Amino acid sequence: MGSSSDIDYTGNEDDAPFENNTTLDESDTREAGTSPSQVRNRIYVLKRLYTQGPALEEAGIDLMPSDPFPDGGISKAVNRIATRAIGWIPPLPDDVAIPIMSAAARFIGVPANDIISLQDHFINVFNGDLAASRHPRKLAAGTASLMSFDFSVIPGEAKPWREPIQSTCLRQYDRTETRSTLTPVMQLRRLIMQVLGAAAVVVQSYVGMRISEICSLVTESVDQETGLPSCINVRRSNSGLNQIFGSAPFVL
C-alpha cells in the first residue's frame, strides 16, 4: 500500500471519526454501557477500509464487496449500537458556582481598580526619570514603588482587601518541596492575571460568552461616551426601555 500521503480521505462529515476520542478516557469508563464515541472509534475502521478500495486494490488486497453502512451512514449505525446517550458537561452546583461568581464580581471592583493603578504606577516609575538608567536600578525603583502601595478598603469592610506587597516565599507543593522567592514584580503579574481571570468568569457566567469568544474581542481604546472598551457598542432596544450591549456578532 502507498504511504499515508497517498490515501484518499474524501468522504462526508458524517463519516469523520471523533478525533479527540481515539482512546478511551476516564469519563468513558465511569458509566455502564457503551458511548457513541466508543462505538464510532471501533467501527470507523470498516468505513475507512471501504473508502480506501482503490488503494487496496493497487496493493493486491481483496476489496470489501459492499459498503458496510449503506443505510444512513456510520452515524446511524452508531446511534443504533450505542447504549449511552452523548454526555454533556453538567452545570456547576449552586453551592460551587455562587461563591465563585460572587468572588469574581467582588474582585473586578475595588481590587481590580487598585491593581490597574498599581500597574500604572510601576510602569511610570520604571519608564519615567530612570528610563535611561540601567535595568537593575529601574527594577529596584519599580519594586520599591510596588512595596509602598497602599491597597484600598472595600466599602462595608474594615481593612484593605489585601496586605501590602512584600518579598515572600512560596512553597512549591511537589516531590522536592523546594521554596522559591515570589518577588514583588511576580506578585504584580499574578494580580494582573487574577483580574483577567475574574473578568472572564464574570463575562462567562453573566453573559454566556465562550472563552474563545472572549479571547477574540479586540479593543484599542476606551469609548469616552460609554466608558467601555471600543469593541463594545451600546444601543437602545426597539421599545426604548432597555440598553443592548453588543460586540459584533454577539449581543451581550
Secondary-structure map with pairings?
Layout: H1 26-30, H2 36-51, H3 53-58, H4 73-81, H5 94-107, H6 110-127, H7 135-147, E1 168-171, E2 179-182, H8 184-207, H9 211-215, E3 233-236, E4 243-247, E5 250-251
Antiparallel strand pairs: 1-2, 3-4, 4-5
Helix pairs in contact: 2-4, 5-8, 6-7, 6-8
Describe the 3D structure.
The structure is a single chain. The chain has 252 residues and is mainly alpha-helical. The chain has helices spanning 26-30, 36-51, 53-58, 73-81, 94-107, 110-127, 135-147, 184-207, 211-215; strands spanning 168-171, 179-182, 233-236, 243-247, 250-251. A 3-stranded antiparallel β-sheet has the order 3-4-5, with no helix packed on it. A two-stranded antiparallel sheet has the order 1-2. A hairpin with a 2-residue loop joins strand 4 and strand 5 (250-251). Helix 5 (94-107) packs across helix 8, helix 6 runs antiparallel to helix 7 and helix 6 packs antiparallel against helix 8 (184-207). The longest helix has 24 residues, at 184-207. The protein is elongated, with a radius of gyration of 28 Å.
Quaternary structure annotation: single chain
Q: Segments where pLDDT lies below 50 for 5+ residues?
A: 1-13, 17-29
Helix coverage percent: 40-55%
Shape: elongated
Number of strands: 5
Provide the descriptors you would attach to this structure in a database record.
two-stranded antiparallel sheet, single chain, 252 residues, mainly alpha, 9 helices, three-stranded antiparallel β-sheet
